[in-house]
Write the structure tokens for this entry.
Amino acid sequence: MFDITRQVTSVQRVVSQHSVVGGAQVSVLLRRNYVAPIEELWRALTEPDRLRRWFLPITGELREGGRYQFEGNAGGQILRCAAPRLVKITFGDSVLEVRLAESDDGTGLEMMHSVPMEPTSSGAGALFVGPGWDVDLLVLDRYLRGEYVPGWENSAAAQEFSQQAIKAWAAATADSGTADGDQIAAGVAAASARFTPDLDQTTA
């Protein structure tokens, strides 16, 4: 058993909105620490055999400039790859960047995922993206600790974790000033239906 509250509070979450060529984007930023050497975390994030153990099978030319495809999920191009500190990719119609840095007790990870502003037209779009990455980064932590059981992300405990993470993303979105109360409430409802379908949504 793991401490859900501790896991939720171990992540720093930031929501931002910015203009790009052709439109606008909302970005979610997640920061958390892993008790693992930077090289080990890098391998877990970039080596196909390790990725499939905690995330998804991946195929393609896994090098800078190459193209990749996650099984049953997004694909894209590897824009930058500087081992063991930086990887930046297109992820479907969005951009995902992961940075690693040594910390006092392991390795710090910073992930930014920038997605098109539509369909929410506000920073509440963060609620469609952030909670999913929360689960993935928690699974990565459990994998590195040798505690991950495949399929855990579909468990009741994972949904309870997601419920708290959704609240944290709603607070981060409110703090960003990029969405009003109604937009955030709609985002919470959509995120709850997606990530916590078996829980009582009146407590979300």
User: Anything to note?
Assistant: Strands lie at 12-20, 23-34, 58-60, 67-70, 75-82, 86-91, 94-103, 106-116. The chain has six helices and eight strands. The first strand starts at residue 12 and ends at 20.
